Please model this.
Amino acid sequence: MSKLKIGIIVGSNSKDSINRKLAQALARLARDEADFEFIDIGHLPFYSRDDDADYPAVFTEFKQRVRAQDGILFVTPEQNRSVPALLKNALDAGSRPPSDRAWGGIPAAMIGTSPGGPGTSMAQQHLRNILAFLGMPTMTQPEGYIQWKEGLVEPNGEIGAASREFLTKYMQSLLAWVALTRKA
Ligand code: FNR
Model:
């Protein structure tokens, strides 16, 4: 069987994003089991419903990249106790026009890191709500509320020893979830 294709969407456009560092290290951790493709959202303009009449190519290309995946892993910061506007905009842009929504039926999982103890848990609860509406079967366990600490990602880009067992299990669960629920 060929490897699963997992699209990774990072909800940050910071050049020093800790969530991107985590995402890259997670992809590295599971690189033998799946093919990972980072789907950039930082270049997407603000969606307007006026776009629906003649959908911009930049959104259509984004939707094509989403549809080409067996599953999507969202790796996102929390902003003001919710999903960053950058990510919400990408979710909106990928959901329109209503007859041509990209997300439906694609398995998803989410994880995120922040310097604070709650580790993006509130953003993830909001994201779950959105993904439910968009029709994405979303992994429920394990949850990935990760506090950013020195050594979580080593300077060489590997997940640090203290978190490797948990995050290896997380990635194995993600791949099992996608294999179970992906579109035929
Ligand atoms: C934050 N941060 C933050 N952290 C958190 O745990 N809960 C929150 O609600 C917020 N809110 C918030 C709002 C705004 C506007 C900013 C800029 C930051 C802190 C945030 O977790 C921290 O900046 C992370 O480094 C962001 O992740 P990236 O962009 O480095 O991946």
About this structure: Helices lie at 18-29, 57-67, 85-93, 121-134, 161-181. The chain has a mean pLDDT of 97. The beta strands are 4-10, 34-38, 71-75, 108-114, 145-147. The pocket of FNR is lined by residues 12, 14, 17-19, 77-81, 114-116, 118 (CB under 6 Å).
